[in-house]
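Sequence in, structure out.
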Amino acid sequence: MGQDEITHEGAVDIARYLSGRNESFALRHAFRCISRFCFRYFRIRTDFPDIRANDANLTDVACFVRALQSRLAPNLQGLLDDALHLSAESDELADYLATKHSSKSVKTRAQFEAQLFKGIIDFELRRNKREATWSFLDLGFERIEEKFKLLIDARVGAHHTRMISRLCYQWKDFFLSDEQTEELEKTEEAKQEEWLNQKIGEKLRPIWFLLVSIGRLLQKGEFRLSAEDAYWLGLIDEVIGREDLHSLRQIVEYTDAPEPTEKLESKG
């Protein structure tokens, strides 16, 4: 067998290596873009009431996706739909595991992982119970493994937890009401992080995982992006020459601008 020939085992190892690299790049993309992405969210959330006029049951993150789609090129519509689907499916699975598979009695990491696997299997059986011919082979065991890794990452991944806590602190002024802001100020400093996570963590979590899902999909396919597309997806800060596409730089420069001074009258 020549050195360039690839065995089945070698192909599996390469696929896992590439999958790991793709996940690493997707997370790096999310870490670097999340501040811009949140800024886009607050930039266009005024569209949400009009979007809900056609579907009152849409979540905030679903409204955000609809608002973004109206601003992106047609070839990117499916990307956002798929990202929203991945995020929603992950949330649905996590909620199912939280209610049906309690981890209170779990003592070891292996027991915790076994419970996740059982939960994924039960979840897929429940979702497909009306399909008499459905099989786990249709889903693909690689998809079960992918779901398992994503759940592990989301539930015990320290970087996700740290990021959401950071977002809660950075964007608290945009989410908290005046009454909640006063309540936060009265809370002990050591307990403020926990308080913020409880109050607005569940609002920011879907935005974060939507961006993570977008990053994962961008790593798996080829997408042509205009400068405007890149702006709305949070990939770049601003588009030069487009004053209507506001940036954080403009806000900072406006805030830091000196107050205008009165023109001195001439003594002559």
